[in-house]
# Entry
Amino acid sequence: MGNNILIAITAGLGGMLGWGFADFFAKKTIDKIGDLRTLFWQQLFGVLPLLGVFLVHPEVPKLHHFDPLFLLIFGIVEALTYLALYAGFSEGQVSLLSPIFASYSVVVVILSILILGEPLYFKRSLAILITFIGILLISTDVNDLESSFRKRALRLAGLPQVVTALLGFSFWLLFLDKFLDGKPWLPYLLIIRIVVALTLLVYAATKRVSLRIVDRTLWKFLVCIGVFDVAAFSFVSYGFSHSQYPSIIAVLSATFSLPTILLAYFFLGERINRTQIAAAFTILCGIVLIALN
# Structure
């Protein structure tokens, strides 16, 4: 059991670092080329390292009757979740909507207990709760919220899209864990990644949005986003395949805002407020407690 938990913790922290670094580099691209272009190229560049590893160590799994359908659904749902999330962020206040989406981790915990029967003892539950509080704190722009309350201008625009993304990603993670249990994760993740890229390509075509990148200086950032994003999914997928604790993986990987904020502080000179410092400390305490329990 101890080794099983260690795998889950390592997978969760790998997801945290991968998505944290990916979000940091995304700061360089989204404002310039928009969400859809960034998403598409991020997914496409993420296919390349997976394909390279697969060609070096080919492992073709035996597909059962409904496996191709499940993989197709996984890819389409992931793409639609991304689109719904960014659509919500574009319409409403990120300071309110971001912590709402970040709560997908606690939804996964609840679903893991109710549906998968995952054992969750009191000490581990307390550690996960502490980590989740840190996630909410670090995802919330307190100054923006206070300003909105004072002006009575707190808007819920974008909430339906973000809640849709929240539920979609929660169930996506849960069923991906169930699907990958004991299976070779790499070929399945590769197929899902290709489906996501194709789904975004079709969506862009229907919306008549060009995916062309004119500014060549952005390519290096897009490559970094794709590599770190797929690294995060690889860690999470490996954890789902080799451990029985999806709740730990989901909660730890959801702390990705921590490395993003630290990178922005050291390399972009962005300020860290007291709430973020308290959130970082809370998250670190939660991670330590999870590891000890």
Observations:
- Residues 2-292 form one domain.
- DSSP finds 13 helices and no strands in the chain.
- The CA atoms of residues 10 and 240 lie 11 Å apart.
